[in-house]
Amino acid sequence: MSDLFEPLPLRHGPALRNRIMLAPLVNQQSEHDGSASKYDQDWMEQVARGGYALIQTGATYVEAGGIAYERQLGIQSEAQVAGLAGMASAIREGGALSAVQLHHAGHRANPAIGGIPAPASILTTEEVERIRDSFIAAALRAERAGFDGVSLHGAFGWILSEFLSPLLNHRTDKYGGSTENRARLTLEVIEGIRRVSGPDFQIGWRLSVERYGLRLEELREITADILDRELIDYLDLALWDSAQIVQAGAFRGRTMLSVFTSLPRRGVRVGAAGKITSARRARQMLDEGCDFVIVGRAGILRRDFPRQVAADPAYQSPKLPVTAQYLRDGGLSERFIDHLRRWPYFVNPREA
Question: Could you tell me which residue ranges the NADH:flavin oxidoreductase/NADH oxidase N-terminal domain spans (predicted)?
Answer without folding.
Answer: 3-310
